[in-house]
Amino acid sequence: AACSGGGSKESGGSGKEDSGKGSKPIVIKFSHVTSIDSVKGKAAERFKELVEEKTGGKATVEVYPSSQLYGDNDELDALVSGNVHMIAPSVTKMVKLDPRWQYVDMPFLFKDQEHVHKFFESDVAKTLLNSDQLAANDIMGLAFWENGFKHFTNNERPIQKPEDMKGLKFRAQAGKVLEAQFKALGAGSATIAFGETYAALQQGTVDGQENTYNNMDTQKYQEVQKYMTISEHGRLDYAIFVNKSFWEGMPDDIRAQVEEALKEATELEWKLAKEENDKSLDNLKNSGKMEVLELTADERAAFEKALQPVYDEFEDVITKELIDGIRNLK
Ligand code: LMR
């Protein structure tokens, strides 16, 4: 069951060497939606190399970036059914299975990158990765990967205060928390798959969107968005999920080597997230196409205040345990 047929367009000779000896390598199909040069794309490629190194070619990873195999709407279903074995979605998208994953969308919950790392390593984060809701769908979470803080962009006007958001329509990833966030700011939102967002911005289906510097830069949103406000109002982070039957069906020694590879790839990913987002901010600023605006402390506080209703509405859904657990790590 571990083997998948069909030639991969990914290079990597280990599979070929092995097939000569009659034992086919275990193929781990890893699907994701961002580009090959995004933070996630780079870390996925490194993971593939590490798996092949550590297993001596007994296992290989076929990485399918840029929604080429499955997009936002179907990658989770594909994992549940075992059509792919590993995905690394923005955790927001897990709302379908467990609404607590929307912790990531709670406005201004995380202070800085260190706070995010502390959370990733915390017991409260592990309860999400090992939840019954995931197990009931034959999947499990193995690790957190980071991206960064989100910022607003739009085509209509520079945004400095909550009122500037009024009447604008934004692309959102998924879920009621993001919907409520935009509503609290007087704006509208529409769920649009990541792979379709550039076109939606270009065609004016929506006026704006929110994302990390690196996602915007690697999707070239500077070509289709006039203003960006450095708002850091929410996070976009990932978790690695695997199909449980597939994972547990791997020989123990190989699974241990793959786990080791994931651990190293995760360390690299955390480093890359900061470096690549910093580089991408420079790219966005230097593009000459998008005006980049900053918020004063007072302006930021005005956004925080305007977004307070999101906590009133969703504290029970996300659970107090999780929200307080995260706040107490500060
Ligand atoms: C998005 O949809 O904006 C992100 O989840 C894309 C990603 O995977 O980083």
TrEMBL record:
<comment type="similarity">
    <text>Belongs to the bacterial solute-binding protein 7 family.</text>
</comment>
<dbReference type="InterPro" id="IPR004682">
    <property type="entry name" value="TRAP_DctP"/>
</dbReference>
<keyword id="KW-0813">Transport</keyword>
<dbReference type="InterPro" id="IPR018389">
    <property type="entry name" value="DctP_fam"/>
</dbReference>
<dbReference type="InterPro" id="IPR038404">
    <property type="entry name" value="TRAP_DctP_sf"/>
</dbReference>
<keyword id="KW-0732">Signal</keyword>
<protein>
    <submittedName>
        <fullName>C4-dicarboxylate-binding protein DctP</fullName>
    </submittedName>
</protein>
<dbReference type="Pfam" id="PF03480">
    <property type="entry name" value="DctP"/>
</dbReference>
